[in-house]
Specification:
By secondary structure, this protein is of the alpha+beta class. It is built from 32 helices and 9 strands. The chain folds into 5 domains: 216 residues, no CATH class; 130 residues; 39 residues, no CATH class; 130 residues, no CATH class; 78 residues, no CATH class.
């Protein structure tokens, strides 16, 4: 084919008798298989000595197609000898020539051909045209029905003959109507050559003896094909079939429903897709894509968009979805939410998800937030991160919120989450936020201890207690006694000893000791025992009386009592009552020493002092008690009780 022009090159080959039937002249050198095929097809006898026949067949090994006329060599030639003039077209030429009927006049049809002419290729216009309005004979409807009809199962289509000239024109018109892929496989023979046993290939089309009968009843698609058959050039229907039929697994059978679809271009998309199902819509992805693109460009009913997504959302169609945005804008909120629910459930690279992404990116945040559902929130969030800051975007259920944060841990920090959810934050959401933001400032976590939701406060307390290195900072930032009390409640559930004991003692002293809850007093007393030394003793002076009073009056909860018992269980204590064991544990931790009475200074309450002194009698020596009475920090009440013990003549012999 000449570059930049509409001119095509057509090669020629001449076969005839010269000491046997053989190739006489050629403008092209073909492979041996192709030459052998041409040799056979060029020597099929004509039905009359003065007649001729037309053949058309492919040469797959050479990627060529042949249109040939054979006629008798005539008087003076060996009986039965013939001439065959063949036009050899490459596939590009076959596709580019619009009107293949116009090739027939280029063939010689009688006489002794000029070899030197055939030895050169022809240069002809690709826009060459045959005559218009040709009479294709009474059996053109039979040819259409049998060639394209879905009921035809045989490879070869047989059509009653209407005479050689009419048969040739009908065969060429059928060939002209085909798209390039089908043209390459088409073959036919006219005249006697079509029925000669063992002669030629399995023809796609051949003509048989005339028969009488009613014309076939053509359906809508076949009628369209039949009406198009006599027309010249690249009709709109042929261009349509050329673009789409080749996608079908059986392109020839696809022609009828495709022609019907083409003729009914104003039908609703749903009806046109239903017509496609006769072919197999999953095969015709290009046509389906173009139909969808057309629908998106021309639809004026927004609800048609939902129908389209429901019908084709799972198809891998590469369609520009931007037209879906104005259609989606025309939907009411309920329909808009349905559109996103259906489209958002599609798999990646499917039409539904393409439309979902376009609509999400092109719609107002407020509308998107109201339409968000569990199935599409994460996809929305990926496309529109700013939705994270809208409370109406989030699910109302605490568990659902928490699950979303766990799957998208980077979307929301603790500070933003607390500001967003406010008093409506739930414990599961709080836990997920804390897990997603492990380095959140300790004071921020401490602020959660004052939540109106006790469960949220417990979650924050658990997080603080689980990280002792952050607990010191947290305790230093606590400003309200109630926050420390909630932290202490969770610490009691965790069990002794409390982590960061010095920080507990410091925080307790800083906030004031008078209004401390029982849990805080218990935890801080255990912290003081764990800390020991002067600092621990200072804290114990603020907690001992409260703890003893709670123990003596049975006002400790079971958890608090267990906490205290576990805290002192490692010491070798002799008493069995909890209050006495607490006194004994204090004396064990802070025994009297020179200049200090130790644990004997913990209480000025007469009953608590008595418990201390009674325990001292069992764990200290007489000299230790005498030493304690000399300490300046010994409370008068305790000193008096000790002197009474020392003056009692019934000291056990081992207490000396």
């Amino acid at each position: 084919m000449s570059a930049g022009t509409r001119t095509v090159r057509i090669d020629q080959v001449l076969h005839g008798y010269e000491r046997g039937h053989k190739e006489i002249a050629s403008s092209i050198r073909l492979d041996e298989k192709a030459r052998a095929t041409m040799l056979v097809h060029s020597d099929l006898l004509a039905d009359k000595s003065d007649g001729s026949y037309l053949t058309c067949y492919p040469l797959p090994s050479a990627s060529r197609h042949v249109l040939a006329r054979t006629w008798s060599a005539g008087a003076g030639s060996r009986p039965g000898s013939v001439w065959t003039h063949s036009l050899v077209l490459d596939y590009q030429c076959l596709a580019k020539i619009n009107d293949l009927v116009a090739l027939e006049p280029l063939l010689m049809r009688s006489g002794d051909p000029r070899r030197e002419v055939i030895a050169k290729p022809l240069e002809v216009s690709a826009d060459l045209q045959g005559t218009a309005g040709d009479d294709l004979g009474p059996h053109s409807a039979d040819a259409i029905a049998r060639f394209y009809g879905l009921c035809e199962t045989e490879m070869t289509v047989e059509v009653p003959t209407a005479g050689r000239a009419t048969d040739e024109l009908l065969a060429l018109a059928l060939w002209r109507q085909m798209w390039p892929g089908l043209r390459r496989t088409f073959s036919f023979a006219t005249g006697f050559a079509a029925t000669r046993p063992g002669a030629g290939p399995e023809w796609t089309l051949r003509f048989t003896a005339p028969t009488q009968g009613a014309r076939p009843d053509l359906g809508p698609g076949l009628l369209v094909l039949h009406d198009d058959l006599p027309r010249r050039g690249p009709t709109e229907l042929r261009l349509f079939l050329s673009r789409y039929a080749s996608e079908a697994s059986e392109p020839r059978r696809a022609a009828e429903p495709l022609a019907a679809l083409w003729s009914d271009s104003d039908a609703p998309l749903r009806n046109r897709l239903r017509a496609l199902s006769r072919v197999g819509a999953t095969q015709l992805t290009r046509l389906t894509r173009d139909l969808v693109s057309q629908e998106l460009s021309t639809a004026d009913d927004p609800n048609a968009l939902i129908a389209l997504v429901e019908e084709l959302g799972d198809q891998p169609l590469d369609v520009d979805p931007s037209r879906a945005i104005p259609l989606a804008d025309g939907l009411d909120q309920r329909s808009f939410a349905r559109l996103l629910a259906v489209a958002g459930s599609s798999a990646p690279d499917r039409l539904g998800l393409r439309i979902f992404e376009a609509v999400v990116q092109g719609s107002e945040p407020a509308r998107l937030a109201k339409a968000a559902e569990a199935t599409n929130r994460e996809r929305m969030l990926t496309l529109r991160p700013e939705l994270i800051a809208r409370i109406d975007f989030w699910p109302t259920d605490d568990q659902d919120r928490a699950a979303l944060i766990e799957r998208q841990p980077a979307v929301l920090g603790l500070q933003d989450g607390l500001a967003l959810f406010g008093d409506h934050i739930g414990p599961m959401t709080a836990r997920s936020l804390l897990a997603a933001d492990p380095n959140a400032p300790a004071p921020l976590v401490v602020s959660m201890l004052s939540s109106k939701d006790v469960a949220v406060a417990r979650v924050a307390a658990q997080r603080l207690l689980a990280r002792p290195e952050r607990l010191v900072e947290a305790l230093a930032s606590i400003e309200h006694r109630a926050s420390l009390d909630r932290l202490a409640e969770v610490q009691i559930a965790n069990g002794p000893p409390p982590p960061a004991a010095p920080a507990w003692c410091t925080c307790h002293a800083r906030l004031g000791t008078e209004a401390a809850a029982a849990s805080t007093v218990v935890v801080c007393h255990v912290a003081a025992l764990d800390l020991g030394g002067r600092a621990g003793l200072e804290t114990a002076r603020t907690t001992f009386d409260r703890v003893m009073r709670l123990a003596l009056t049975d006002r400790l909860s079971r958890e608090q009592e267990d906490y205290l018992e576990r805290a002192i269980s490692g010491r070798h204590l002799r008493a069995w009552r909890l209050a006495d064991r607490l006194a004994e544990a204090a004396l064990d931790r802070w025994p009297p020493e020179r200049g200090s009475a130790g644990a004997l200074t913990l209480s000025e309450d007469h009953e608590n002092a008595r418990a201390l002194v009674n325990s001292a009698v069992t764990v200290l020596t007489k000299s230790d008690l005498k030493l304690a009475t000399l300490a300046r920090d010994l409370p008068p009440t305790t000193a008096s009780l000790i002197r009474k013990k020392l003056d009692t003549p019934l000291w056990l012999s081992w207490w000396s």
